[in-house]
Design goal:
Helix content: 40-55%
Strand content: 25-35%
Number of domains: 2
Largest sheet: 6 strands, antiparallel
Oligomer: single chain
């Protein structure tokens, strides 16, 4: 996987992870401020200005919501790149927990995993990573603590790894 693509995707992931809640909080605070000003009669004479400020606050909040949707798309893209082009390694499952997140298709389940990754390339150091990945319910018996599983990861970033067992999905949260 080319370094520049991973780096740009990681920047987008970090921006959306941090930016979405900030925009949503700012939009909410501005909206509440507008409501307080309306209740206090500050904009009694200038209703158009009040509506512009309220629309601006709602717009800032909706930008935050859009960043959440974009973050999901970035994660899907990162997972697909790892699946197709990631460096290979083996990981020992240190922790595995079903998080209870429901999917429309009941055979798909989300698991939170803590992995100790050992890259196949001896020049890369081992690392530990926490991930949340989707698996088919038939793959769940392979997700036991102490099991060794094949993984793909980006050598440029130790934030993500993708478990590559049969019936796993290239989907991360």
């Amino acid at each position: 996987m080319p370094r520049s693509r991973v780096a740009s995707k990681m920047r987008a992931y970090l921006f959306t992870t941090l930016g979405a809640p900030i925009f949503m909080l700012l939009g909410t605070a501005a909206f509440i401020g507008c409501l307080i000003c309306l209740a206090m009669g500050i904009w009694e004479e200038d209703v158009i200005r009040a509506m512009l400020y309220i629309n601006g606050a709602i717009t800032v909040f909706m930008v935050g919501c859009g960043l959440i949707v974009y973050r999901s798309a970035v994660l899907t893209d990162i997972a697909q790149d790892l699946h197709d082009n990631g460096a290979q390694g083996t990981a020992t499952i240190l922790e595995a927990e079903y998080n209870g997140r429901l999917e429309v298709e009941r055979h798909k389940q989300w698991y939170e995993l803590k992995l100790a990754v050992r890259p196949d390339d001896v020049g890369l150091p081992p690392f530990t990573v926490d991930i949340e990945q989707m698996f088919h319910k038939e793959a769940v018996p392979m997700l036991t603590v102490g099991s060794n599983v094949p993984v793909r990861f980006s050598p440029d970033s130790e934030i993500f790894a993708l478990v590559m067992i049969e019936r796993s999905y290239a989907r991360l949260k």
